[in-house]
Records
---
Amino acid sequence: MNQNYNKIPLAIVTGAASGLGFELALLLARDGYELILIDVNSEKLQQAKEKIEARYATQVQLLHKDLSKPKVAESIVQSIEDRAIDVLVNNAGFGIYGSFHETDWERQAAMLHLHVITTTHLTKLILKKMVARGKGKILNMSSLAAFQPGPLMSLYYASKAYILSFSEAIANELKGTGVTVTCLCPGQTKTCFQEVVSNGCSASDNKIKFNIACPKQVAAYGYEAMKKGKIVAIPGNINKLLSKLPRLVPRRTATAVIRRIQEKNRAV
Ligand SMILES: NC(=O)c1ccc[n+]([C@@H]2O[C@H](COP(=O)([O-])OP(=O)(O)OC[C@H]3O[C@@H](n4cnc5c(N)ncnc54)[C@H](OP(=O)(O)O)[C@@H]3O)[C@@H](O)[C@H]2O)c1
């Protein structure tokens, strides 16, 4: 057995094959963490491992999992056995564009399972051991979408609001335990996310090219916030302002504005 088995910090990152998850994995590798990277896309996951190992001398273990499936959190915890987790990054996610009644239920249910059930269950299973050890950090990926309802992406916005509310509540419960929870709420970021959102509907790539962040910068911002134990992290001054707008105007107005933005952003 590796002599350093319990000495090298260990991090789990979900959705680590691309975008923000990959950038967060790189930052953890830079800081000396061993990694367990999880993604549904095994080919991209293998490429991510090779890129990380080419830059940093760290151990990278891959778990090929569809996190939208039942009991997947339990199977992850079984795979890692009794290894102590220092950092958990619940990042995997995707969006679905279209009217709620017209979009595909199988895909909607998968997204809800991924964002709500798997994020919650994996957090619960790993958090218990972190609290028992008196240390650990959790980074949950929400979105600017969390701050108001989102017509035409209703379940995405609602599920990201769940992640924000859940994270803030347990962060409060965990005060004094040595474990922190940070919720990262990015605005539009240049990753594969936008292509996936448009998948299966007539909309094409996003049309609003204003205020699109670079994934490296968003990940670095979230990572620093997690290290400091900040509870809510919103990268970018414009996004900080946008997150407050729903409190300054009637909720109905904020909802109508989001509908206009979504229609404009994904118009064919
Ligand atoms: N990009 C943005 O504008 C933006 C803004 C706010 C929040 N976010 C959030 O940031 C997180 C990361 O997204 P990203 O922008 O980095 O997009 P991304 O490049 O598409 O990365 C998401 C990763 O998660 C994986 N994934 C999707 N469904 C999965 C499942 N069921 N099981 C396991 N892995 C799965 C994807 O695999 P595949 O490639 O095979 O789908 C992909 O590798 C998401 O939670 C997203 O909601 C993104």
Note: The pocket of NAP is lined by residues 15, 17-21, 39-41, 44, 65-68, 91-94, 114, 141, 143, 186, 188-189, 191-193, 196 (CB under 6 Å).
---
Amino acid sequence: MSDTSHLLDPTLAQQLLGAAREVAAHAYAPYSRFRVGAALLFDDGHITTGCNVENVSFGLTSCAERNALFRAVSERGAAHRIVAIAVTNLNDAASPPCGACRQVMSEFVTPSAVIVFPGDAGIEIRSFAELLPFSFHLETK
Ligand SMILES: [Zn+2]
């Protein structure tokens, strides 16, 4: 792991990855067998987790990151903001969040939010802004 301690405390990063790994065991992935878990750390210290849930109609599959976010909003409302997102899988594969999840999470992250995930060369810790530099925002005139 490169020195990314300025972005996120390494101990906290490992804690979040552990929570994500734990919930990945609940994934419903009979088609891809790619079991993913996500852990979202909110600005009040609360952590919400989620796993991927597939469907035989593949387009209806929902990612771990979005399931975690929707769970968090369902349980606690939308007042809190995400400061860190951890995503991992039980397949020992690189798994940065997909584009759809990045867009959905963009409405709930703090400006300094970070993402932790397994990359091709080990654990990556990146700023959310780096992963989604031009998110869609609704602006009307
Ligand atoms: Zn996704």
Note: The chain has one domain: 10-131.
